[in-house]
Amino acid sequence: MAYTGAGNLALDGPDPRIHMPSEQQELTQMTPEHYKPSFEESMYWAALEREHEATTTSAMEASHYSGLHKKILGRGEKKDDSVSDHTYPPDKKHGSEPRIVSEDERHTAARALRTAGWVSVFYLITTDILGPYSAPWAFSQLGYVSGCLIFFFFGAIAAYTGFLLWWMYLKLDSARYPVKTYSDLGGRIYNPIVRHGINILQSIQLLFNVAVIILGNGQGLSQVAKNRVCFSALCIIWTVVGMVIGQIRSLRNFGWLANLAIWMNLIVLFCTMGVVAHSGPNLVAAVASGLIDSPADAVPIVHSAVIHIPFTNQIVGVMQIVYSYGGAMLFIEFMAEMRRPWDFWKGMVCAQLFIFIVYMLFGLFVYAFQGQYTVNPANQGIATFGWQTATNIISFLSALIAAGLYGNIGIKVLYVNVLEELFGFPSLLSKSGRYIWTVTVLCYWSFAFVIASAIPQFSNISGIVAALCILQFTYSFPPLLFLGFQMHVDAIEGDRPYEPGMTESPRVDSWGNWSRWKRAITKYWYFKLFNLLFGMAALATAGLGAYSSILGIINGFKDGSHASSFGCQSPVA
Fold first, then answer.
1. What does the DSSP 8-state code read for residue 89?
2. What are phi and psi of 319, to 5 degrees?
3. Neighbour-count burial of 92, counting CB atoms closer than 10 A to its CB (0-12 exposed, 13-18 middle, 19+ buried)
4. What's the CA gap between 233 and 569, in Å, rounded?
């Protein structure tokens, strides 16, 4: 099963998809490449994996600190064998004997590649989100009360769905049958069609994320240039920069860059809050964004608890809040790189609290001072040119890190899981694969430029991404996946216990028999019904969000309130 994880960003090392030595690839290959384990097998080996992690984590940590102490003192470091103490039952089912190396050595090699802790996960989740810059505009569409309630509601259910993903991962992942991506989880619970569908949707989201970055940076650069350069040309500049960055296949050193991006975002937040509190709104950007017809039409700033505007406009505002909780797409990848995946909940909870508190307070603060003139993204609504330029430049650097992250992962997801697996393209490790990678990068960033320049409406295009992609990974898929997971678990209770090396299936019936469906449905039926309705409601919300965003795009072009496609007029300058 192809590895498309992004969690290795937590490490200060190369991307194991590309740079893992062939010896380690051989050691970590537990079973034949195309073998799909049964649900019972996955749960059996996952239970042993969790037991192994619980008994060895403390020994590994003690060895780590002991080794660090010896390095400081200049002494040699003794090899740590703590992870090899656990013995797994032999499994003759897949012809794994005779082995070149022992099962414990294979397991040790697989475990050695997992080094991330929950603090790294916290940084990566908060970096994965493009930032809180859309939160003030969301409040300008919803108002104080509605905005706060929706921020809290979506944050709470994002935490719930995050726990669902975490629990399924713990129950299905093992060194023998690893779950490395979101699509792996979908394929393990349902079928390969679901896995391929998730991979394609993930590629689409990452492509649109890159397009949003190009559009946002193009807007910022047009403000720095005081609209003296054609906007589409500025977008081309960022596209070319992205093409150059995209040639780097390794994600080495992205761990500390991810941390740096958080601090740069915080600097922009604090600068924006400080400036808007002592200056008026950016009326030029408000006119360019279609908020007013001309600066002469400006009226005193208005803000209220509830905003009375068309419902579809408010839905686009809701999609900006959904965008804030869009890190779930990579949760599985992050867990796949953790030394102890059980601790993932700590990083996830801290990240969700950070997003909820910081993003919401920032949105409330800026909306309180700019009201109906709030621009998306918020820092481009600063009226003082010097501060506006400073925050734009810092945002450029932060966006370059995000562009490198999204572009690299997105192209690898596209290449490994779609081009290589479905269409038989050569491996990325081959010489021809390297040439195809270069062409793929150029095409990928070109498509992103077309999207950004064709639809220069930041709020509406980000609303489409949130509705069609982000909302699925964060709110629709987890409850529907957990529904299938729970049905499998309850159906297994009537089967014989799984044991390694079984020549016959432990199942007493199949999904073609009503008896299996009865066991799967009747137990905890109310919880299954809740998750089913939850998933359906999320899908309906996604449809409503997509409709509202598309309608906003159409209306924006129709009434001429927004910049034209592939034009030279900036959307904010």
1. P
2. -65, -30
3. exposed
4. 11
Distance CA 180, CA 9 (A): 14
Tens digit of each residue's pLDDT (9 = 90 or more) over 363-407 = 999 999 999 999 999 999 999 999 999 999 999 888 887 777 777
Model's pTM, two decimal places? 0.82
**Domains of the chain from N-terminus onward:** 117-489+527-559 (1.20.1740.10)
Question: Rounded to whole angstroms, how far apart are CA atoms 572 and 365?
Answer: 21
Distances (CA, A) of 319 to 137, 147, 148, 346, 541: 11, 11, 14, 26, 9
Where do the DSSP E strands lie in 163-213?
Answer: none
Both structure tokens of 333: 């990848």
* Contact call for residues 154 and 321 (beta carbons, < 8 A): yes
The distance of Cα 210 from the centroid of its chain, to the nearest Å, equals: 13
Q: Is 23 exposed, middle or buried (0-12, 13-18, 19+ CB in 10 A)?
A: exposed
Q: Is the pLDDT of residue 43 over 80?
A: yes
Q: CA–CA distance from 519 to each of 59, 480, 513, 526 (Å)?
A: 41, 18, 11, 14
Identify which of 406, 30, 336 has the alpha carbon closest to the alpha carbon of residue 185.
336
3-state secondary structure of 116: strand
Instruction: Tell me how long the chain is.
Output: 573
Number of H helices, E strands in the chain: 24, 0
pLDDT for 142-191, tens place per residue? 999 999 999 999 999 999 999 999 999 999 999 889 998 899 999 999 99
Token readout for 82 is: 């703590």
CB of 381 closer than 8 Å to CB of 390: no
Calculate the average pLDDT of the chain: 82
Q: Count of CB atoms within 10 A of residue 261's CB?
A: 23
Which residue type occupies 107?
Answer: H
